[in-house]
Recover the amino acids of this structure.
């Protein structure tokens, strides 16, 4: 048994999927569900995802062994301050945010020494959002990063790693700053590239639905992601995303220069390096 | 029956798939297969794709009602000059190249009035290449553009449209210059974006295989395309690709500026417009 009870704060895709995943691996678990919107909490109950729900987060977290924050990153500090006084000293708190340095540095002192906070980033998601899109198998076989600070207690880190492994995730431990630098490259930059591509094509007055093949569809799929969630991510991780996006803009400018100069060797080199790199990472 | 015999020049993915597709819809058809590499022609025969093969293209095209050029675009003019004297006046020639203005303007006068040439762009492909990757259903339900010039005979245009429709393609007629402008946006620009993204991530020393989720995988899939084929496309359509790639570089620079200014409203606007556009075209 993972624990007798888990509090999930946030009634979106990740919160709902997490509740479903927990109940799949451990049917006896009690899930407490908290959030701002009573209608979403009722929906969670109707979907069989919650044993107790409340918009009063102090009630939600009471006596729970785990608290998992599944809300937008920018709301986490105020939620942390609201729940911290109501946690028992056997509670472990983690989150599912996509940027980690600011989250870990901000939340760790709010929870203090008595209730350890360790950041997590389960790398599972969808361009669909909301409780209705929740899937209990969302986490299975996906990657997860756990991001302790230097002072995080080792046995708590192990417990958080075990929590996600129990849901079928491949877990690795990485410090928050390195995590943010990596996801800026492999997750946040692809989103910017996809969104920019969609807009350039629209600006040119070209309708891709009559012409776009699978190349257009795949390359731009993630541009349909929830704007509010991505705004949250971009602002939280801007220190890492800014240099990455600059590099992408410059790389495209290099390609333009090579095209303008009819530089076969530079273009072939560009295409060959990209193919070799892509082939080596599938 | 489409015709009694079709000559396919070029033993790659498209030539092989075309042979398989023709034999699927019309088992009685004779396929003549021509190319530079005898080993590939033997493979085509062994795969049941060819009834006659030769590296001598004059022999390949002799008495065929259709000739379909499935080679790299830059080889087409010399192939056209080699076969033009050997075509009957009932032959129709088309091609499968991804850029059309230069192809149509160059090949039409080589074939002259007696043998009409009409360009085609069946928008089907794969990041896999070569005869071994050929699939007889590659064209089914895919888009195809036929690109006549103003002086192209109407009944020949109709025949070329019918040829691709018979293979299950959705065909539309567009002039070559407009075609090139559109594919620069929906096909060639996504390739550049995917390749640039892969290289920026590699340059940053980040290994996406341990971290990349489905976002990275989908956004960069086409970067694994054949470098030689893509070099051919980029050079043939550079006049249209250069301004498109410049716009993408500038769009990313705009995002960098918004991030540097912590400009929530510009970033949200960017993300919302991209989502709306992407949602409207799936």
């Amino acid at each position: 048994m993972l624990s007798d009870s888990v509090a999930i704060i946030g009634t979106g895709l990740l919160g709902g999927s997490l509740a479903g995943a927990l109940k799949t691996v451990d049917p006896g678990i009690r899930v407490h569900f908290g959030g701002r919107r009573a209608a979403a909490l009722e929906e969670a109950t109707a979907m069989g995802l919650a044993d107790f729900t409340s918009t009063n987060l102090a009630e939600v977290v009471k006596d729970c062994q785990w608290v998992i924050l599944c809300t937008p990153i920018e709301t986490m500090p105020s939620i942390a301050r609201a729940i911290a006084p109501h946690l028992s000293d056997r509670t472990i708190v983690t989150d599912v945010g996509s940027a980690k340095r600011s989250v870990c540095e901000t939340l760790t002192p709010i929870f203090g020494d008595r209730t350890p906070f360790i950041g997590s980033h389960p790398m599972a998601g969808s361009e669909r959002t909301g409780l209705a899109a929740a899937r209990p198998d969302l986490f299975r076989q996906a990657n997860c990063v756990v991001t302790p600070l230097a002072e995080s207690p080792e046995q708590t880190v192990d417990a958080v790693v075990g929590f996600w492994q129990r849901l079928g995730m491949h877990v690795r431990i990485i410090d928050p700053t390195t995590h943010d630098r990596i996801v800026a490259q492999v997750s946040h930059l692809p989103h910017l590239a996809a969104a920019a591509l969609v807009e350039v094509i629209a600006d040119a007055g070209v309708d891709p639905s009559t012409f776009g093949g699978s190349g257009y569809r795949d390359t731009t799929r993630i541009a349909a992601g929830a704007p509010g969630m991505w705004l949250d991510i971009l602002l939280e991780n801007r220190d890492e995303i800014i240099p990455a996006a600059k590099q992408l803009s410059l790389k495209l400018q290099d390609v333009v220069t090579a095209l303008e100069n009819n530089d076969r060797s530079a273009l072939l080199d560009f295409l060959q390096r990209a193919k070799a790199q892509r082939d080596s990472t599938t």
Chain B touches chain A through 88 residues (CB under 8 Å).
